Structure formats: structure tokens, C-alpha cells
């Protein structure tokens, strides 16, 4: 995964995949922005989708393009979805991973209830 330029990371940090908006996880935190490159004022942005069936892809593409176009020195933006790489949870930021709390495979957890109790915060513990 290539490192995004700081200006692009900051510009896109307020754009959310609608499926993660309520959790405050941006397209950057989700790892949906594969690359941002600029040549002669034209930004080329490559996005991945969590699913090829994402009904919000057009909305996200438009929001990303609008946000990139608003940045200093950018005269045009070509935003596209790339299909030669699959999105995986490895692309999640540490913050997104913590919020989403992915569980290990069931076979790796011999005592489900103990595992859940050990990983719940105090306010989530059953009374």
C-alpha cells in the first residue's frame, strides 16, 4: 500500500463510505484510497471498493473528486475505481480496526463467552 500525500489524506479524511459514516470511519481509514498522484496539476486518484456491488460507489467517487479539486494547485482530477487489487481488512487503519473490532475465526476461540467478556469495555459489560 503506497503512502498517501499528507494533503490528500487531510482532504479525504472527511469523506465517508455511507456504510461506515455512523462509526466515523473515513474512506482513508477504510483503506479505500489506493493512490493519489499529481502531474501538471492533474490528480489521479485510485480507489478500491470493499465490494464490487457497493451501491454508493458513484457517490463516493463524486465526493472524492470534489474534495481533491478544492485543493491548491489541482486543476483537474481523474478519480477511478481499480479492479486489479481486492480490498482486504489489512488496509484498515489501526483506528478503524479498533472501532470495527474484527473477531478471530470461531475455531480460534475455544470459549466464546470468556473471549467476549475479556474484550468488552466496562460500559459494554452486561449488568
Secondary structure elements and pairings:
Elements: H1 6-12, H2 27-30, E1 33-39, E2 42-47, H3 57-69, E3 76-81, H4 94-100, H5 112-119
Parallel strand pairs: 2-3
Antiparallel strand pairs: 1-2
Structure explained in plain terms:
The radius of gyration is 18 Å and the shape is elongated. The protein contains five helices and three strands. It has a single domain, classed as GMP Synthetase, Chain A, domain 3, CATH 3.30.300. The model has no long low-confidence stretch (mean pLDDT 86). Helix 3 links the parallel strand 2 and strand 3. With 127 residues, it is an alpha+beta fold. Helices cover 31% and strands 15% of the residues. The chain starts with 5 loop residues before the first helix and ends in an 8-residue tail after the last helix. Strands 1-2-3 form a three-stranded mixed beta sheet.
State the gist of this model.
This protein is an alpha+beta fold and 127 residues long. The chain contains five helices and three strands.
Main attributes of the structure:
single chain; alpha+beta; GMP Synthetase, Chain A, domain 3; 3-stranded mixed β-sheet; 5 helices; 3 strands
Amino acid at each position: 500500500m503506497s503512502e498517501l500525500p499528507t494533503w490528500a489524506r487531510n482532504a479525504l479524511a472527511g469523506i465517508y463510505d455511507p456504510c461506515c459514516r455512523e462509526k466515523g470511519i473515513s474512506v482513508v481509514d477504510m483503506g479505500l484510497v489506493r493512490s493519489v498522484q499529481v502531474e501538471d496539476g492533474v490528480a489521479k486518484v485510485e480507489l478500491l471498493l470493499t465490494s464490487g456491488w457497493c451501491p454508493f460507489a458513484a457517490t463516493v467517487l463524486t465526493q472524492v473528486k470534489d474534495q481533491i479539486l478544492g485543493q491548491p494547485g489541482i486543476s483537474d482530477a481523474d478519480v477511478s475505481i481499480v479492479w486489479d487489487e481486492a480490498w482486504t481488512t489489512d488496509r484498515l487503519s489501526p483506528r478503524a480496526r479498533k472501532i470495527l473490532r474484527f473477531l478471530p475465526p470461531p475455531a480460534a476461540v475455544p470459549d466464546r463467552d470468556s473471549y467476549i467478556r475479556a474484550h468488552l469495555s466496562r460500559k459494554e459489560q452486561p449488568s
